[in-house]
Design a protein that fits this description.
mainly alpha, 13 helices, transducer, GPCR_Rhodpsn_7TM, G-protein coupled receptor, Octopamine receptor beta-2R, transmembrane
Length: 386
């Protein structure tokens, strides 16, 4: 009887071990697939953003200079930073040595800081475009945009490559006990506070207050546009009635210049909303990481499972793949450009250079102009849709 019980226990233990190994294998394959998908989405999505802006003249505005530069930074995150983290998850150890470990940690800090500074530049650009539109052509020139981009790419070196390769970022105890098969980002308290403030907290605070001012001004302008549109509709109706009675032609209440200004203002507001959503997505993806990073760095006795670190890092990395999705969903110009670029990429008949795509856009505009309704009714319908 005892022998039978022993045999049953051994069989149940063996079954339990097999089930555990099968579960671990499934979890490992699922995790690997998800991480690879994030890397591929980040590379292809941001490459699509860059190519679409290069191919379509309509997207070549100053704001999109920052968007293209941000997309390039996200591509470098996917190609330089994510693969090393993926290798750690795949092999469960670090296999590249201490020098590459410092390079990886430096690149991680550098590109994260670069991304948040790009978004800060975008918020400043949108602030001048909507809150101070008269100063926008003077302040936000191409030269100023390039100066801001140069500062965005060069300034994060002071908190990434320089302090990490010089060993200023960590504790002396970690430098003594550092193992070759491990690559931990163990930082000291001053570096944790300074780096997180420069990389995230200060720029994020600036962006929040900037976008609050933008949305406050945008709401004020939209209310003014609604009131102006209502008055224009009444004036147009009154002038038409008077003209019909007197047998004379009536004059529309609006002018082409006003129509262009109104439509331009609407485009500025839509662009600000899209870029505000991008900023919000960045904060949602990276805020948990920086809270975790700062709290664990300042707390000496805090313990946490390794899976939490993995989730925090890859939640932040996912933001690099999220921006093109936001463009495609919320911005009609980018959405149309993405469709055209993908069509030309997958259809040999549609392969054209940039000038060909611009010529196609001009032909489309000319063809659609022939189908437009008369000018007075079109202006009234545009104002009614505000």
């Amino acid at each position: 009887m005892d022998q039978v019980n022993v045999t049953r226990n051994e069989t149940s233990n063996a079954t339990g071990v097999e089930d555990s190994e099968w579960t671990q294998a499934v979890v490992f394959k699922l995790r690997t697939a998800i991480l690879l998908l994030i890397v591929i989405m980040a590379v292809l999505g941001n490459l699509l953003v860059i190519v679409s802006v290069m191919r379509h003249r309509k997207l070549r505005v100053i704001t999109n200079y920052f968007v293209v530069s941000l997309a390039f930074a996200d591509i470098l995150v996917a190609m330089v930073v994510m693969p090393f983290n993926f290798s750690v998850q795949f092999y469960n150890e670090w296999i590249f040595g201490p020098v590459i470990c410092d390079l990886w940690n430096s690149s991680d800090v550098y590109f994260t800081s670069t991304s948040i500074l790009h978004l800060c530049c975008i918020s400043v650009d949108r602030y001048y475009a909507i809150v101070k539109p008269l100063k926008y052509p003077i302040k936000m020139t191409k030269k100023m945009a390039f100066v801001m981009l140069a500062a965005t790419w060069l300034s994060p070196i002071t908190i990434s490559y320089a302090p990490i390769f010089m060993g200023w970022y960590t504790t002396s105890e970690y430098m003594r006990t550092r193992e070759l098969n491990q690559c931990e980002f163990k930082v000291n308290k001053p570096y944790a506070v300074i780096s997180s403030s420069i990389s995230f907290w200060i720029p994020c605070t600036i962006m929040i207050f900037t976008y609050l001012a933008i949305f406050k001004e945008a709401n004020r302008q939209e209310k003014a546009l609604h009131a102006r549109a209502g008055n224009a509709m009444l004036m147009h109706r009154h002038s038409r009635e008077v003209g019909d009675k007197n047998g004379a032609l009536h004059i529309n209440a609006t002018t082409p210049t006003k129509d262009r200004n109104i439509l331009k203002m609407k485009r500025e507001h839509k662009a600000a909303r899209t870029l505000g959503i991008i900023m919000g997505a960045f904060i949602l993806c990276w805020l948990p990481f920086f809270l975790f990073y700062l709290s664990t760095s300042l707390c000496d006795s805090c313990t946490y499972p390794e899976v939490v670190t993995v989730i925090m890092f890859w939640t932040g990395y996912f933001n690099s793949a999220l921006n093109p999705i936001i463009y495609a969903y919320f911005n009609r110009d980018f959405r149309n450009a993405f469709k055209n670029t993908l069509a030309c990429a997958f259809c040999s008949f549609c392969r054209r250079n940039a000038s060909d795509s611009d010529a196609l856009e001009r032909l489309d505009r000319r063809g659609s102009a022939q189908l437009r309704v008369p000018m007075p009714s079109r202006r009234a319908s545009d104002l009614a849709s505000l």
